[in-house]
Q: What sequence folds into this?
């Protein structure tokens, strides 16, 4: 699949569901979002890039903490939903720009912080996106990555990637924490400690957000039913298909 086709896949998957992501309870709260707010509050007047902004919850949090925010996403429909919600909340320090994470239309050292949350597992080329994030950050800037991560155990990793791809064909990969640390290091960052959390995915809303076809829903449920005990235990798979995901927040500074 070409980069153009993958980008179209992402836009098709998320554009029509923009409102669902703005209102999603899973995306609208969390300890990682609280941490992002605290980090930005400590940098008064910071210029912030919300990279792959999705439903805009990082942008809203950063703007409420006093930042001037650029919300950046592939989906114009998602950006329109973010702009409308920002106006509804009275957040007038958010502007929107459309584009891919791997090609940022911003000058070198344009931002004090680059923030990305629940987006990178859709990026076609994470190394290129991180290199761009490094370029647009000031030398004393901060990158915060918060995303779903794969367990280090290959058995658990394989199960996770399979159900993610069945649910959403624009999925690329949930990276392991060890992979994230290597990717950040290669891009010129010094990564800090990964702060873990385990959000619960309520199955019905999880598949509804992506309009997952019934055949794929059945395949996910079949994988869950056949999962080895180690997989079922780790992900806390419930009778209705709801389960736990692993998430990590990593703060990284340019070297």
A:
């Amino acid at each position: 699949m070409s980069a153009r086709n993958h980008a179209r896949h992402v836009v098709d998957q998320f554009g029509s569901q923009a409102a669902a992501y703005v209102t999603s309870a899973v995306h609208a709260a969390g300890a990682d979002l609280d941490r992002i707010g605290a980090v930005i509050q400590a940098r008064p007047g910071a210029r912030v890039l919300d990279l792959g902004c999705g439903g805009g919850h990082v942008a809203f949090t950063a703007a409420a903490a006093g930042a001037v925010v650029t919300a950046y996403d592939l989906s114009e429909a998602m950006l329109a939903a973010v702009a409308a919600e920002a106006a509804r909340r009275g957040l007038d320090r958010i502007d929107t720009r459309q584009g891919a994470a791997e090609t940022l239309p911003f000058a070198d050292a344009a931002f004090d912080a680059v923030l990305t949350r629940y987006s990178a597992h859709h990026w076609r080329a994470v190394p290129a996106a991180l290199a761009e994030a490094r370029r647009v950050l000031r030398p004393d800037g901060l990158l915060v990555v918060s995303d779903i991560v794969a367990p280090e155990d290959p058995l658990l990793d394989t199960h996770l990637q399979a159900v993610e791809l069945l649910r959403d064909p624009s999925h690329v990969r949930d990276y392991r924490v060890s992979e994230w640390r290597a990717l950040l290091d290669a891009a010129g960052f010094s990564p800090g400690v990964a702060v873990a959390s385990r959000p619960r995915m309520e199955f019905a809303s999880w598949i509804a957000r992506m309009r997952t076809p019934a055949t794929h829903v059945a395949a996910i449920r079949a994988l869950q039913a056949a999962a080895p005990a180690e997989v079922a235990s780790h992900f806390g798979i419930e009778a209705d298909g709801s389960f736990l995901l692993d998430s990590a927040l990593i703060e990284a500074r340019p070297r």
Residues 3-150+170-198+246-254 form a domain with the Rossmann fold fold (CATH 3.40.50.150). The chain has one domain: 3-150+170-198+246-254.
